[in-house]
Amino acid sequence: xxxxxxxxxxxxxxxxxxxSLAAWNANAEELWCKVTRKLDSEREYSREHLDKYQxxxxxxxxxxxxxxxxxxxxxxxxxxCDEYVADKIEIDGSTGHRKFYYHRxxxxxxxxxxxxxxxxxxxxxxxxxxxxxQ
Length: 134
Fold this sequence. Notes:
Elements: H1 3-27, E1 29-39, H2 47-53, E2 56-62, E3 65-73, E4 79-85, E5 88-91, E6 98-102, E7 107-111, E8 116-120, E9 126-133
């Protein structure tokens, strides 16, 4: 290859990469979904419990798909998150509701068009709350 052709191809690649990253960032979104109500078959968690452990979910979407991070403070006072790659994403074209599935853990998060959400942890606990764009 000639030097001019090589330079042209390198420039074309860099421009393509920049445009791809810009498109990915335009589609990227991060939501923080704070749990305001949590229950299972035996109890509804108290306001004190929710205030102490501050459970919630980060929903991060982009051109690659989505990740779900379940977060809370542990009894030691340390904040931690477990992250899962969504296996499936369903979007209702009429309502704008989005549902994210992690099949192995039987875990899912549904975010409604008004940014209210429901988390099903796959082990009998359901959480409800509000999401905010980060």
